[in-house]
Task: structure prediction
Amino acid sequence: MFTPSEISEIKKLLTPDKKIVIITHHNPDGDAVGSSLGLKHFLKQKGLEADVIVPNDFPKFLKWMPESKKIIIADYKRKVAGEAIYNADVIFILDFNASHRSGNLVGPWIEKARAKKILIDHHQQPEDFDFVYSDVTVPATSQMIYHFIQALEEEDIVNREIAECLYTGIMTDTGGFRFRSTSATTHRIVANLIEKGADPAMITSNTWDTNTVSRLHLLALVLGRIEVVKDGKVAILWLKRDELKEFGFQKGDTEGFVNYGLSIMGTQVSAFFMEDLYEDFIKISFRSKEDVDVNQFSRNHFNGGGHINAAGGKYMKSIEETIEDFKEKIEKEDF
Ligand code: 5GP
Ligand code: MN
Result:
């Protein structure tokens, strides 16, 4: 958490005359959108306005969240987003650790911005900003927003909108309250959020009961060819661009596919490789169990990073070569 003196400095920054902007990482997920909108609704309760800016579009299954329609998508609204960041007095950097994670467009804008920058994030190795609240043991940035609200002694003003957004972020980043860093504290906060008006059944249904037939067909294809290597410890899944096109791929359609690899008895790592729809690179998702560190593995070999048990990466070779390289590298890992 921020130190008490940082908290009082931040309090002084958060006044109605200030322009406040909240930014997430590229390809925003449930936690990025949930923490940002949660913070926005919290600021609103305090009489402050803030713009949420995301580098690119986010999945449809998050667009039920209160005020998600008002999020500025920098890819589509370059000028509006650029000016808001340029003119900001305060920028919240949520759910990412380094400016480049917000992409080629927004990343440099953040670096150039004259605003006071406040990072709240749970990824490894944060860059330095004016204020940094980084904790890799917390399962979701949305939980950290709740801790931040507690540190400001403002828990009383948490309303239904804030609760719904933070609940969604925690639920999605913990895989439904299952992943390892899900703690008793997480559950206590979630209990508070339910008391403040978050409806678990509604949120789960809006977020997760959103399969399209095409997504299920895509999933069937991926599951039908899961390969297991390294004595059953590593699962490999993959999709090609043509297949994505054939099934009418939409953003978010492959979210969660990588987790199926980890559900196989005995696997420690699951890797999902997907050709980007437009550009010549392979987007990789890694998941792992226990102490197997896919963050470091991805940093070392696949131009990526993330968390110990959930990381991503990018690779510039063909999908076949990428998978071959992966098999070679993972074989040498000691687990
Ligand atoms: P996902 O597999 O869901 O895309 O990403 C898993 C985690 O790894 C997320 O927390 C995400 O922030 C991080 N991540 C994904 N792709 C990259 C990447 O290219 N670079 C870094 N540093 N982190 C990534
Ligand atoms: Mn997160």
Remarks:
- The pocket of manganese (II) ion (ligand 2) is lined by residues 31, 95, 122, 140-141, 173 (CB under 6 Å).
- The chain has two domains: 4-208, 213-331.
